[in-house]
Amino acid sequence: MWTKSHSIVTREVTKEQMWKLFADVNNWHTWDEGIEFAKMDGAFVKGNRFLLRPKGGPNVNIELIETVENKKFVDLTRFPLAKMYGEHIFEETPEGLKLTTTMKVEGLLRFLWVKLVAQKIADGVPGEFQHQIKAAKKR
Q1: In the chain, what are the domain boundaries?
Q2: What is the CATH number of domain 2-136?
Q3: Is this model's pTM higher than 0.90 or not?
Q4: Quick one: pLDDT band at residue 139, thresholds 50, 70, 90?
């Protein structure tokens, strides 16, 4: 299994603001410069799915496999012979709100999907935190 994790601690936003930001999947394109659109019908809950199109890429179906309101969500993208998980945690600490995003890829072709997709996503996480915080502050 391949894993890459990034964290940041901030006092600029609350876990509730971050949750609202992510739960509004249809507006991800307003703060995530790497996607053309994301579309989900229904609530941001375990078992629901959404469609996402990365800029310059094909549509990707993503499933929410775990959601704990205001605390954590995990999404799953299935590729041929591999699965990619995105785990997003909002944790209150004495220093502020700790945001952690962990990307994991498993399966026979994980090396290929890490090279094609996951590494780029993981490398962009530190910069994305700043976009997320800025957007969440407006909620």
Answers
A1: 2-136
A2: 3.30.530.20
A3: yes
A4: confident
